[in-house]
Amino acid sequence: MTTTAAILRARGAPFSLETVTLADPGPGQLLVKLAACGICFTDVGVQRYEQGTPLPHVLGHEGAGTVMAVGAGVEHVAPGDRVVLSYASCGHCPNCASHHPQYCASFMALNYGGVLPDGAVPMHQGDAPVYGGFFGQSSFAGHAIAYARNTVKLADDVPFELAAPFGCGLQTGAGTAYNTLDVQSAHSFAVIGAGSVGLAAMLAAVDRDCHTIVAVDRVADRLDLARRMGATHAINSNGMAAADLALALRAIVPTGIDRIVDTTGVSAVVRGGLEGLAARGQMALLAVTAPGTEITINPNTLLGGRRLVGAVEGDADPQSFIPWLLGRHRAGRFNHAPLVQTYAFAQINEAVADMAAGRAVKPVLLMD
Ligand SMILES: [Zn+2]
Ligand SMILES: [Zn+2]
């Protein structure tokens, strides 16, 4: 079949909407008619920087839509089901077998490789290959081929544009707070970098009734949004050195913050957060940083029982975590709607520009 896809033809170039031919779903695969797809900084990172993904390529990894057809062996969803698509994993390596598919041994090949696991190119224009299968989907398109493992069934009452970002960004932020850091009401919490992923982490702290919730960002609008969504305190870190950030955090909680999520990966910011962390506190890093990035810390800060930990995809198994998080949303405990700004699919380049400039927190493309 043919569909319209947003193709990245050169590093740094805008996406161009073109017709591509998509193969039929093979064993373990399914065809999804997309209704919405969120844009994540990982898409923009691959658009701008060489990360081993072959070109031309169709990106997009927060797809949501309706199953059109299923290949052999796909049993948990059927044509007509509403679904949200998440990251791909192999299902049989040691981490997949122990329900940690986010640390799948084949994560890079399956999510960034550009070809299907058997080496086949997933899309074509005439005889010319178009690479895809990005995060097991390539959802900047009218239709995508996904896998049973990364396709999560969606209840009828969640709009596609609110469901789509659960596939990556919201799962990453919220999962880091719920799963990696296990935030509790007895904890003070801070998020450093209040974009969509950071604010999703903050929403988890709001859900868990953390008694103090601090948002740190350089953009005043983001801090206003964070306050509207439940932050009890805000720190504008514009121009702050590491020591200033630590002092600002300790001005709010003199003994230090119990749980911190950093979405920046910036050395001085991480150092400042770590120095503002309480004894036995934990700080999680989730930013994918540019090659060559280094972080300098004073190792003595770790001696107070402090932990610095990294996580991808919120330490979450999408098949169990996404339905659970959607349940929190439906119960009124995880209201991410203020993060979402919708765009027509044809406005994809405008949406990317708005996200990069901070005018949109979580752009979601609508395919219908
Ligand atoms: Zn695996
Ligand atoms: Zn993502």
Describe the protein:
This protein is of the alpha/beta class and 368 residues long. The protein folds into two domains: 197 residues, Quinone Oxidoreductase, Chain A, domain 1 (Alpha-Beta Complex); 139 residues, Rossmann fold. It contains eleven helices and 18 strands. It is globular, with a radius of gyration of 20 Å. The model has no long low-confidence stretch (mean pLDDT 96). The chain binds zinc ion (2 copies). The site of one zinc ion has 5 residues, from loops.
Tally of helical segments: 11
Envelope shape: globular
- Give the integer mean of the pLDDT values: 96
CATH architecture of the largest domain: Alpha-Beta Complex
The residue ranges in which pLDDT falls below 50 over 5 or more consecutive positions are none
Order of helices and strands: EEEHEEEHHEEEEHHEHEHEHEHEEHEHE
- Give the bound compounds: zinc ion
How many runs of DSSP E, i.e. beta strands?
A: 18
User: Would you identify the CATH H-level superfamily of the largest domain?
Assistant: Medium-chain alcohol dehydrogenases, catalytic domain
Q: Give the distance, in angstroms, between the N- and C-terminal Cα atoms.
A: 18 Å
**Integer count of domains:** 2
**CATH-defined topology of the largest domain:** Quinone Oxidoreductase, Chain A, domain 1
- Determine and state the CATH class of the largest domain: Alpha Beta
Organism: Sandarakinorhabdus cyanobacteriorum
Protein name: Enoyl reductase (ER) domain-containing protein
Pfam families: ADH_N (PF08240), ADH_zinc_N (PF00107)
Family: Belongs to the zinc-containing alcohol dehydrogenase family.
